[in-house]
Amino acid sequence: MDKNIIERYKAEMLKISRLAKQTNAEITQTTEPINNQEQGTSENSGKLIAIVTTLRSLYPVSNAKITLFTGDYNNMNVIATDYTDQSGRTDAFTLETPSEQLSLDSANTTRPYALYNMLVEAEGYLSNIHLNIPVFSNTTSLQRSNMLLVETAGVNKGPQIFDETQQFNL
Q1: Per residue of the chain (170 residues), what is the pLDDT tens digit?
Q2: Rounded CA Rg of the chain
Q3: Which of 118, 112, 116, 113 is nearest to 144 (CA)?
Q4: What does pTM read for this prediction?
C-alpha cells in the first residue's frame, strides 16, 4: 500500500476530528443553560430510561407506553408518560431525587434516592408493573422490562408485578 495514501488519510481524519471538537465546543457555548432551573431540572434530580424487550431480551418492543408514577397502582399519581422508540427505549425521564450529599454522609439514616413505579403497556403483551425503582441524583438509571406475549401467558391476563426493592448499602 502506498505510504502517501496512509498519511493523507491520517491527516484528513485529524482535520475532521479537530473540526468536530471545534463544532461541539461552539454548540456547548451557545446552548448551555445559565443554571439548571432554566433547563427545567434541579440539582436534586436523576434520570430514568426504560428499555422494553420481549421475553429474554431478544427483540425490542417499539411503541410501548411507559407511565411513571408514585403511589399505589389503583390510585397512582402519574409523573410522566412516554413511548418507546424502535430500539425499545424511551427518552430519559428527569425525576426529582434527594440530594446526592445524603449518600456521602455515613451517619445519614434518610434514603439517598427516590423510588418510582413504572407501568409498561404494549399491544399484544401482558402489562408489566415495576415497583420501587431507585433513582439517584445526578445519575441515569436504566430499567429493563421484558414483555410476555398475551397468547403465551395462559390463564393469567393481569399485569405482571415486579418489585425492584433492594437495599443499597452506601
Answers
A1: 566 777 777 777 666 666 665 544 444 443 343 333 334 445 789 999 999 999 777 899 999 999 999 988 888 899 999 999 999 999 999 999 998 888 777 777 788 889 999 999 999 999 999 999 999 999 999 999 999 988 776 666 778 888 888 665 65
A2: 22
A3: 118
A4: 0.69
